[in-house]
Amino acid sequence: xxxxxxxxxxxxxxxxxxxxxxxxxxxxxxxxxxxxxxxxxxxxxxxxxxxxxxxxxxxxxxxxxxxxxxxxxxxxxxxxxxxxxxxxxxxxxxxxxxxxxxxxxxxxxxxxxxxxxxxxxxxxxxxxxxxxxxxxxxxxxxxxxxxxxxxxxxxxxxxxxxxxxxxxxxxxxxxxxxxxxxxxxxxxxxxxxxxxxxxxxxxxxxxxxxxxxxxxxxxx
Length: 220
Hints:
Helix content is about 35%, strand content about 25%. The chain is α+β, with helices and mostly antiparallel strands. Among the domains are: about 1-45; about 120-220, Immunoglobulin-like (Sandwich). It has a 5-stranded antiparallel sheet with strand order 4-7-2-1-8, with no helix packed on it. The chain has a 4-stranded antiparallel sheet with strand order 5-6-3-9, with no helix packed on it. The relative contact order is 0.11.
């Protein structure tokens, strides 16, 4: 048997079959190597040193914990993608939350209140008359001037141009002309609610009626 086998291996036909099998093995190895090289080229691209892309830009790659179900991993991916806000939505939210710089116009009630406050802060006065003595054809009248504004006044003027009344004597005030009289240097300045007293004597006609007050002008 050994001699027969040795004779078979040394024969030309035996050597041909051995060479054919070796060629088949080498061809298979070459095909596998070519497939591996092609796969690396497709995955890595033109740059063999480039790492495979495993992260989508703008999103983190989610790893599935060991033992977690595939449905839970899919739910996590949906939650992560929902948290990414698009630029258009961000711009719309920013524009809707931007405060307006235009100030609202004042209402009529606010304007009236402002005007009343300005009036109360201005100087003003009132002048009242009271008859102290009365004769058949003349009277003696006292005048009380009160500072009624929110600030002090420096001087005051009153209008005593009265019908059927002819003033022939007066005190604590000076005549300005045309029936008007003004304060003296020493009793002109009045703080708020402070008063000054003046008076006059006048001839009157029958049926003359003196008013209870006369116009007063504050000088600030």
